[in-house]
Amino acid sequence: xxxxxxxxxxxxxxxxxxxxxxxxxxxxxxxxxxxxxxxxxxxxxxxxxxxxxxxxxxxxxxxxxxxxxxxxxxxxxxxxxxxxxxxxxxxxxxxxxxxxxxxxxxxxxxxxxxxxxxxxxxxxxxxxxxxxxxxxxxxxxxxxxxxxxxxxxxxxxxxxxxxxxxxxxxxxxxxxxxxxxxxxxxxxxxxxxxxxxxxxxxxxxxxxxxxxxxxxxxxxxxxxxxxxxxxxxxxxxxxxxxxxxxxxxxxxxxxxxxxxxxxxxxxxxxxxxxxxxxxxxxxxxxxxxxxxxxxxxxxxxxxxxxxxxxxxxxxx
Length: 316
Description:
This protein is α/β, with parallel strands linked by helices. The protein has 14 helices and ten strands. Strand 1 (35-37) and strand 2 form a beta hairpin.
């Protein structure tokens, strides 16, 4: 069995030696990356992207632009385009923006950022602060229109969503949306999805965290809203649960040879999902993550088997 450790060793060695896409050279797929369409326009995106929280954020906060560049290069060289960031992720947005500018790679990315200036009673002061954050984020993104900007964790939607609507109407944002990674907010999230013209949402979803399937995804499908999946690894929770275990052999039937691919393929295989955006700080992990975008996705029976398998593991 090709374990995660061995896969990453091979990917890193091959990439370093040949300077090419290690996934293809390792024969992990037939060269066709799975893409999904944005419902509101039909534009297609690679189903695996890159988030910039967690370990990526730590790199940025340390000012390690060389390491940030290596991860972004792995994303682009591997055929990915979606980069999800936010002003709330420490230095991630600013450092990534600087690196992408130095790489002259802005046109190769689908740049997704967020707005989160929490309101305190509404009014022009909050609106002014929100606009200031938006202008900074657009400057960092390095091009207008920005591909996507979302209200982060439903923060002061009454003030901030209209700002995003103004941006889109002015041609300064291609898509707008809202995010939530807190299940207690799902009820409010669902109401906004039903009542507001959102192009995208972002939500937490993983093999051991499937609430979005019942509460959020059906509305997204009904309303034609694209879905970005956050936290497909349950932050570090799922890694702790599978520590020391090999990926089950039956997962090879749908091309999951590492745990990262197992977890990402579960999230990506739901038909409501447009892109899965796990964060990482290491280029070989980015390569591994992109491997989940190749080959077939698990079917309904296999998805249930994945859920059952993880449910039987000791809790983290």
